[in-house]
Design goal:
With about 325 residues, the protein is α/β, with parallel strands linked by helices. It has two domains: about 10-125, Arc Repressor Mutant, subunit A (Orthogonal Bundle); about 130-330, 3-Layer(aba) Sandwich (Dna Topoisomerase Vi A Subunit, Chain: A, domain 2). The chain has eleven helices and 15 strands.
Length: about 325
Amino acid sequence: MSSLPSTTPPELFDRITTLLTSFHVALAHSTSLTLAIASPRSSPPVLHTLTFPGSTPREAWRFTIYLSLLSAIHHLLSTNQTATKRDIFYQHISLFRTQAVVDKAVEELAATFSVPRSALGVVAAAKGMVKGGMRIVMSRDESVECSTAATLIPPGIQVERIELLDEVEWILFIEKEAIFQRLGVGKKGVAITGKGYPDVATRELLVRLAAMGKRVFALVDLDPHGIEIMATVRFGSRAMAHEGVRLCVEGLHWIGVRYEDLVDIKNGREGLLGLTLRDRQKAVGMLARAWMEEVPEWKEALQRMLFCGMKAEIEILGEDLWEWTEGKIGDL
């Protein structure tokens, strides 16, 4: 996947400063303003141009949103601070109207400058969790011990380095927080959950751990959403295509739940659920994705779901989930 030319932090600050200065000069001379914005969903990103005051009230509103965000980002970079997307939303609720507007615009600005969102000083509120034999050392000489209790995953921009215990051999990514809380990991593993679809901080941590030579496994529901969550970790999200391979864990191994796992479960069929119309639509859409050919076992699972009309949740594996998980990892 390709992206716009990369931008270093000093260059980013200078580009935003120059852009804002040009806006002030244009306003002083009563001339129109123009701003080229990239779509993060395309790789390479496609630029579209906005003008102010624009031809419609909506175009003027959108331009004002980007201008407000650029001003906020410029302040964050100049003061070496960070802010959550939620913090920014509450600065101008009447302008932004909804949180989704801020989220989308921030991703578009990141794509425009060809940088990770965190490089803008904008981070998401902590969502994912991690536990196991590791320590997260923060950039402010603080550290988070993960071996004693589960902890929230901090934004990657705040992480100086990761320290793994010598015994750690593998990383387990778990779709559901409830399953994450149930499972112990012993001394050999580290468990991570994104509480559903993983956020950027969770994916950044998975990438860093994979880069340290640790195998990464995935435990998700046997349904289209579970496989799409794995795909987000393995291939990245369509909403952030401009990030390229930076947030992709290429060596991700799927340990379950698979249809063959249900064979040894007593009365396993009683735990199966029927596919909904939305499930079927998602499965069909996923089968058309280009990356599907790289993971034939995922493709086969989706095709089987559509043929049988059935799906299963992780909970179907029963109370011996930890023993089952250890056995699966040991076999790979």
